Amino acid sequence: SKRLGKLALCRFGDDIVLAHGGKDQMQHDNSSLSLEFQRALGLDGPAVFKTLMINSNLFGLEPGMVDGNHLVDDKFALWMIKLAVPFWKPLPITRVFSNPALSHAATSFPETAIEFLVELKRSNPRMLVGNENLSPSLISVLFGSRCHHVKTPPKNAYSSIDEIETRVSKLLDDRPDNEYSVLIVVMGPAGTALQQRLHRKKRLFTFDFGSLLDALSGWSTRAGLPAESAPAWIRVSEFNRTDFLLQLCSAFDPGERDQCLILLETTGNCMNGENTDGQCR
Fold first, then answer.
1. Residue 5: which pLDDT band, with cuts at 50, 70 and 90?
2. Burial class of residue 96 in the structure, from the number of CB atoms within 10 Å of its CB (0-12 exposed, 13-18 middle, 19+ buried)
């Protein structure tokens, strides 16, 4: 992967309507954002991995996918393709990846998701760019203690995109000349804009983590915002974040495993159960 130089995994869900001037739950419509979405859909090359929300009977689905849990109907899947075509490169659309791959693996194939997350942490991500409300302890568990958190607004982050890009670029420019960096993005549609802006940077892999981080944060709403509905898959799949995080800790080496469990205690995950007063044992 490092030989490819610039890598990106860009996730396009129903927010793809922004490329056509539409509206999204987490972002006000903006003509500049529409242009950046169009450019992101046009990113091309062997190291660019673009996803679409098309897991359906028509295009294929994985075991465990049901209505509300990462399965969409055929009409919706075709609509996603129709919205992508005007800007997608190369055409026809043949190389496309699963939008909910990580979150669905966490619910239906947790061993696969955990294996991936362990490898992701071993890559020593340089930074996470996303929601200012994320728990520092959870970030450390998932991405390591050296992962720098570039904090962004939990909603309408595109309004601060220039400032965010400046902060991120400074951290990247301060890297040693030979460092290959992994950058995790969790900032809604604005993250897609940031990814396409950063694609000119060398020795960089930008990875859109997706809504699994909402679930692992234990938020009952999207991005922890009271007025925003949580992704349906968290409820429909009955995802148990405590069990998943415990399995993740168990997959680490012994020293790191103990530190992981200690950190998780500070995120409200009582690994040994709770006392009658609600405190962790």
1. low
2. middle
